[in-house]
Design brief:
single chain; alpha+beta; NADH Oxidase; 6 helices; 6 strands
Length: about 180
């Protein structure tokens, strides 16, 4: 009987769960059934590039949180990125974006902020939150350690990994004896 190494099996399992997390984000309910959510799985060298970019951002901003979270990314097997094209309107004229009508919102020049591009439609932001919740629930269902991290999304956008997202978050995943994402310094 062949022996299967626990380490390689756990990596394979984590990559499979990351794929399932992407499915969960994709099939999560969207406002009006309009899907502007973007999902990516990043592992290997590309994952480490995100961690390296987070370290650069920590130095630029004198923000230790980027360095701490970057170490979490390095220590993870993969990262699931979930973003949304929030600069598209839903067409509700609700004013949640700060404009009176969706036409006014659509005609407004998009501005690249420090981390994200805006303004963003409140319904698209809600869609992002629901997709994130669905993805982390899938990770939880498979006993995979994870945590939603804004700093990962900012680094991924800065590296040009996302194609259409105006806002993105990252979810690193791992399977260790103790979760590396909580009880951190």
């Amino acid at each position: 009987m062949p022996i299967v190494d626990a380490g390689s099996s756990e990596v394979e399992g984590l990559l499979n769960v990351a794929r399932l997390m992407m499915v969960s984000a994709r099939t999560a309910p969207k406002s009006g059934g309009k899907d502007d959510v973007e999902t990516l799985m990043v592992f290997g060298e590309e994952k480490d590039q995100i961690a390296d970019e987070m370290e650069k951002m920590a130095i630029e901003r004198n923000a230790k949180g980027f360095s701490r979270d970057g170490k979490n990314v390095k220590d993870s097997v993969a990262v699931v990125l979930i973003g949304v094209e929030g600069t598209k309107s839903f067409g509700m004229d609700c004013g949640g974006c700060g404009f009176k009508t969706c036409n006014e919102f659509e005609e407004t020049a998009r501005r690249k902020g420090r981390d994200f591009t805006g303004p963003n439609c409140v319904f698209k932001s809600l869609d992002l939150g629901i997709a994130l919740g669905s993805a982390v629930k899938t990770a939880m269902d498979h006993n995979v350690d994870n945590r939603i991290m804004y700093r990962i999304g900012t680094a991924a956008i800065r590296l040009g990994l996302t194609k259409k997202s105006s806002v993105a978050m990252g979810i690193p995943i791992s399977a260790k004896g103790k979760s590396i994402y909580f009880d951190r310094p």
